[in-house]
Request: fold
Amino acid sequence: MRQFIEGSFAVAEAVKLCKPGVISAYPITPQTHIVERLADFVASGELNAQFVNVESEHSAASVVLGAVATGVRVFTATSSQGLIYMSEVLFNIAGMRLPVVMVCANRALSAPINIWNDQQDAVSLRDSGWIQLYAENNQEAFDYTLQAYKIAENHKIMLPVMMNMDGFILTHGMETVDVSEQELIDKFLPPYQAPYKLDIENPMSFGLLGDPSLYLETRYALQKTLDDTLALIPQVGKEFASIFGRNGLDLVESYCLDDAKIAIVSMGSVCGTIKDYIDQERAKGKPIGLLKIISFRPFPKEAIFNALKNMSKVLVLDKSISLGNEGPLYTEVKSLFANKKPKINGFVAGLGGRDITLQTIKDMVAIGKKSDTRCEFLGLKEGLLKEEFYVS
Amino acid sequence: MFGPLVGKPGSSKNNKTGSWRSFSKPKFLQKECIACGLCKLICPEGCIEGKEKNTYRSDYLYCKGCGLCAYICPKKDIQMIKEQE
Reply:
């Protein structure tokens, strides 16, 4: 049924339809509405799950780690400082090969305190072994959440998935979302069958010491499995499409790229703004297109290379920065084209919720056409920058 | 190089958090008020003023509409009303 709802509620509906047995979370803006709504569902009896209130995100992640290890489907959600506070546990969840699904409402990191959107939180955890998906709109947030379980719980994968949606822009933005019927979800996503679990009849331990004689192999296995996930993601997307009748997951999405000379590369909700910009330019006959990265981890090298190899210029727009280097997505896209054409250009914008408007995209393309850039900040207010320490 | 790192004391007043409000805001009926001051104490924004009975009010420039004042009021003399009212 189509509903006009905010992104947080769309995700809560998706999670309810996946019937998790345990949910644990700690409130943090702009994620809170997701678990508030889930708590409502549990309280009203619409969702038969245990909702565990905890004192911190570290504990929320620990609760879902323990719960999923017993063979039950779990959910948690967080944002920004909460995600960073969870990070110790997140590496453990991946290392123990446990299929947790988490939604991250992307938000800037302190200091200064900033509750608004960028993607620094999730991008900072790209090396954790989690699969990372980025939604552009609320329908994708709903759909990707369903498909996240299907990927995570695949017995050949058994890895956690972080479904990312831009804070406020999606979590608090109202859109029409096709909230699918339970019947279809059940057809797509059967109950979780754990290939291994904590069971008193058949005792087992998780997260034991892995000394130098075997740690390296656990990392190699993670790396190989994430490579395998590259093949699984489009496969799950196709199965989703055949059941639900709308586009499923893919590694990347190409928009007007076939005959394009200039390609913009980005991820998340800003891709909607970029598509509007491209529509305007296309109406004027300009050969420009967009490559939207959906799966940031695993990083779809081949799909990206093939999509961009015939471009004359590529502009990568990051909503995060690896301080001391450059935008992380730029680094990774550039690495695919070492000593090869096209020239890859890097831009950083939208940090801490600074709006990325059509004008921002226009400015980026104008700069990119004129010069080669590596880490060009868009929309900088020079007047706020001083060489010396000062009190504003 | 330094950006806008340090603010002078009181600079948080520049953030007009009232714009964060969605759906509802508190209405102080000023009829049954006993001046217990609970609304003023519980307000996370510190934007409720008042001393005598039936004088308490919220500064909508800063009120985020959380509803805690209406929740805590023992005389139910604060109501959450729609933003447009």
